[in-house]
Please model this.
Amino acid sequence: MGKRNNHGRWYIAIALLFAGQTASWAADGVSAHRWSWEPLANDGLHDPSNPALSELQQPGEAFAGFPNDFPKIGNQVDWVRALESGVILPRTNIFPDTSIDVLDLDIIMEQTSQMPMVRFPHRAHTQWLDCVNCHDELFKKKAGANPVNMFAILSGEFCGRCHGAVAFPLTECRRCHSEPRKNFTGEFGAQKNKGRIFPPVMEMKDLGINQ
Amino acid sequence: MRANITHIWCHLGLVLTLGAMALPAQAEYGDVVLNKYAEKNGMRPVIYPHWFHRIRFRCKVCHGELGFKMRAGSNDITMGKIVDGQYCGMCHNGEIAWNVEFCDRCHSGLPGLKTKIHGGHSTGGPGGW
Model:
């Protein structure tokens, strides 16, 4: 009996230790959480017995020196800033005659109920994507002509085709819902001026723009 | 009575601890498994890491120039087409990237994985298709 009780104390101690550690992570937030990327052999996808596994690049190695996103958000790197700052130089085309189109045009989507309005930056998107990736299969080329709503997005349509899969996840509400309604005096839809330059995602939180 | 309570705590502690240790390993965000044909033909499933490729190529290269549809499982990719220079074979030809002789670099997944986007946040979207 005494022996079992001793074991019980150990289990409780371990459980409390774990609970305490979790609480301290939650309390300290980002500062206590170092960025780390799962080695391929432990990611639940790669076969550790594959002889070629050691020939593949590890995410932790590839992402060294990248501007960070918050821990556990997407790939934990700020892809847009990595591209704009020249940390990476991904190729734009394979075929020499492919037209490379970047469009600097913000769209204000005002039908967002109680949430701040959405400012969609074409520039950040067209630096990565081509027009045909979204137009016209996912979006008609006319502001207000697309029945975008969060239910559809969460089901993988419209923005949800990429956001939630390869682009920053749908938990980051205020990265898209970034335009306060009460301060906005311009017209909705396509904006006349150049697109807004967004700060790095890690700084958006400090500015109160992020969640 | 007291012994019983201790006993309950003991099990609760064990469950909590093991539960914490058994948290599933996290695939990298955007990792796609392709297994429509691989395992049926005696090969490991293919793991396509978006992160690795987008360091080197913008989305528009594969999803524009090469014609990959932006929906996991909707591209009918076979080794025959790759050897012919379609899909992955546009680059994986020994000129831009490693050629098709390095089977295990792409066919690197655990047996039984389903074709879909594995890494990422769980929504009803692409990760759940």
